[in-house]
Amino acid sequence: MSEHGELLWVPDMANRQRTVVAWLCETLVSALNGGRAFTNLAVLTDHAGVRVPDVAWLPAQSVDDAITDEPMRKCPPLIAEVSLPGSHLVAMNRRVAAYLDAGARQVLVIDVSGLVRSYPPGAGLLPPDIVRPPPHMFESRS
Questions:
Q1: Where are the beta strands (DSSP E) in 4-115?
Q2: Rounded CA separation 54/108 (Å)
Q3: 70: alpha, beta or left, given left = phi > 0 and alpha = psi -120 to 50?
Q4: For 5-48, how does the pLDDT look when each residue is reduced to its tens digit (9 = 90+)?
Q5: Residue 71 belongs to domain with CATH number
Q6: Which end of the chain offers a freer environment for a tag, N or C, measured as fewer CB atoms within 10 Å?
Q7: d(Cα 26, Cα 103) in Å, to the nearest integer?
Q8: Do the domain assignments include residue 39?
């Protein structure tokens, strides 16, 4: 970040990660009987400033809260992050903690092999196996 808070560079997702994000959006809306899944929704956290998760799910009655020019002041109940190859575990743990501290009921982290971790463990809106992407999304293709 610059001294003015501008983001200077972020590693971009590959098509594989974008495919997982799109699949997650569809799966969350279906599994949670509606609402809306947003990609790259700005969320103001209590201790980590503005965070932009890969996917944020909102129930139907809260969807209008996302239609703003400012970051959301209330964290969506379900957040999902798709790890990029080389993602640093400590940085991901900080993001997870920031979302939980800001009020998320569940944070899902999908790693580059398709493994789904749910935070806090054993709690949340969905069991992790419901949002386990199909294995073919993680197969190498030449």
A1: 36-39, 43-45, 49-51, 55-58, 78-82, 106-110
A2: 10
A3: beta
A4: 555 445 566 778 888 999 999 999 999 999 999 999 999 998 88
A5: 3.90.1570.10
A6: C
A7: 23
A8: yes
Q: What are the angstrom distances between the C-alpha of 17 and each of 111, 122, 139?
A: 10, 25, 12
Tokens of 98: 């920031």
9 is a domain residue: no
Residue 58 has pLDDT above 80, yes or no: yes
Structural domain includes residue 37: yes
- pLDDT for position 140: 74
Q: Across the chain, how many H-helices and E-strands are there?
A: 2, 7
pLDDT tens by residue, 100-133: 999 999 999 998 788 899 999 887 888 888 888 8
Q: Write out the E strands in the chain.
A: 36-39, 43-45, 49-51, 55-58, 78-82, 106-110, 116-119
Judged on CB neighbours under 10 Å (0-12, 13-18, 19+), 72 is: buried
- Whether 3 is covered by a domain: the verdict is no
